[in-house]
Amino acid sequence: MKRSKIKEMTLIAIMGGLGAILMVVFHTPIPFMPPFMDFDLAAIPELIGGFALGPVAAIGIILVKILLKFVLMGTSSMFTGEIQNLLLSCAYVLPAVIIYHRKKSKKSALLGMIVGTIVCSITAVFTNLYIIIPFYASLGNMTVQSIVDMCAAVNPLMKDTLTLAIFGIVPFNLIKGSASSLVTYILYKRLSGPIKNFVKE
Q: Residue-wise pLDDT tens for the chain (201 aa)?
């Protein structure tokens, strides 16, 4: 195996580890948002690694992050949270990385992250309402409405699945994606040189 490939794999592991730390240690709920959704900035290493190394590396970083989180904390959602994390991380990061790699510039990076945030927010509605929430409710002998009622307790505007999407799922993912995009936009150019030099040396 080439030395550069080994270094790339090492970098994927490091970035995945940083993502796991950000997800496990630095996470918090957002007021008036669904209580089962935690805000974190774990996407930043995924974006930076993906911009530097490409979409395949981004997927690797996402997988390492999720596996490490599971090793450190196990699952509290009967694996539905881990599945959702994989789906939404890919929905957010991959469009951004693919758009950036077509024409590498600050403009394409910004455009990619905007598109990724929108794609992730839309994906979150469908995966939550039609896959994750019904599956979790079934495993926990609950109803979908009982989960909606949990959300209504923190925000009375979320009365059914439609209002849960409008006032909970979409704004949460827009906030999370925008915050991750802003920090990545500020950091990437400062880190891209050292990252590429590390891989090529």
A: 576 788 889 899 999 999 999 998 888 889 999 988 889 999 999 999 999 999 999 999 999 999 998 888 777 667 788 889 999 999 999 999 999 999 889 999 999 999 999 999 999 999 999 988 888 888 878 899 999 999 999 999 999 999 999 999 999 999 999 999 999 999 988 887 777 777 666
Contact 40, 22 (CB under 8 A): yes
Q: Find the helix packing angle between 170-200 and 3-24, rounded to 10°.
A: 150
Residue 50 near residue 97, CB atoms below 8 Å: yes
Q: Per the structure block, which two tokens stand in for 85?
A: 């994390």
Q: Where are the alpha helices (DSSP H) in the chain?
A: 3-24, 43-53, 55-73, 80-102, 106-127, 133-139, 144-154, 161-164, 170-200
Nearest in space to 178 (alpha carbons), one of 47, 15, 53: 47
Nearest to 177 by CA among 96, 106, 99, 102: 96
Residues in a beta bridge with 28: 39
Q: Any residues with CB less than 8 A from the CB of 143 and at least 6 apart, and which?
A: 137
